[in-house]
Amino acid sequence: MQTVAARADGLTILRLASPADGEAWRAAFAGAYQEIWSEPPYNERFSSEEAGAVLPRTLRIPDQITLLAVRDSGVVAGFAMAYPVSSKPDVVRDIRGLLPIDHTFYFAELGIMEAWRHAGLARQLIERRLELIDKTRFTHVLLRTSATKNAAYDMYKRMGFEDTGVYMEVASRRNDGSFRTDRRLFMAKVL
């Protein structure tokens, strides 16, 4: 585990390198994950076990970049995960022919707790992931966001990500217990 940045608002950004690094943060991460994705536009419901499994699963992916924005008190204020797109077969299926699979990095997760939104944390986590990508191996970055144009879409556009015009339907359990799909848009950036 490595400290990447210390912020004036009391948050520290950590880079986790292995599942062992994530153990101390697993429960706090799971709570943040559940809360963030339960909000619009996704309205998704994850059990504690499902949410808790995300961190160690991601930390086992070769060449992953996992960042947590945390407080000393054990609170996870935000997270950002990325790894080679080749590790995400469902995404590869949808973007094959659009981007070079072996040279594309995938920004898999970005979540900020409501209390820390609109303070530059999301942008900082995106910038840090961009800095940490091995640019001798990867030439493109891909991410997926809600097809509903919102503040996240606008932020990505300002940071140089382009709307690919390619969409993916994502099925998940919603807050009301039903299983439904929602539409996600792929955005890409040349490094």
Task: Note down, in words, how this protein is organized.
It contains 6 helices and 8 strands; from the N terminus they run ββαααββαβαβαββ. It is of the alpha+beta class. It has a single domain, classed as Gcn5-related N-acetyltransferase (GNAT) (Aminopeptidase, 3-Layer(aba) Sandwich), CATH 3.40.630.30. It has an 8-stranded mixed β-sheet, with helices on both faces. A hairpin with a 5-residue loop joins β3 and β4.
Key words describing this protein structure:
191 residues, alpha+beta, Aminopeptidase, eight-stranded mixed sheet, 29% helix, 34% strand, globular
In short:
29% of the residues lie in helices and 34% in strands. The chain has helices at 19-23, 26-37, 48-59, 89-95, 121-132, 151-158, and strands spanning 2-6, 12-16, 65-70, 76-84, 104-112, 140-146, 162-173, 179-190.
Instruction: Give me the count of strands.
Output: 8
* Content-based structural category: alpha+beta
What portion of residues belong to β-strands?
25-35%
What CATH architecture label applies?
Answer: 3-Layer(aba) Sandwich
Main sheet? 8 strands, mixed
CATH topology, anyone?
Aminopeptidase
Mean pLDDT comes to: 93
Order of strands, widest sheet: 1-2-3-4-5-6-8-7
Number of helices: 6
Summarize the amount of helix as a percent range: 25-40%
CATH class category name: Alpha Beta
Taken together, the total number of domains comes to 1
List low-confidence stretches. none
Order of helices and strands: EEHHHEEHEHEHEE
Q: CATH homologous superfamily name?
A: Gcn5-related N-acetyltransferase (GNAT)
- What separation lies between the terminal Cα atoms? 26 Å
Radius of gyration, rounded? 16 Å
Shape: globular
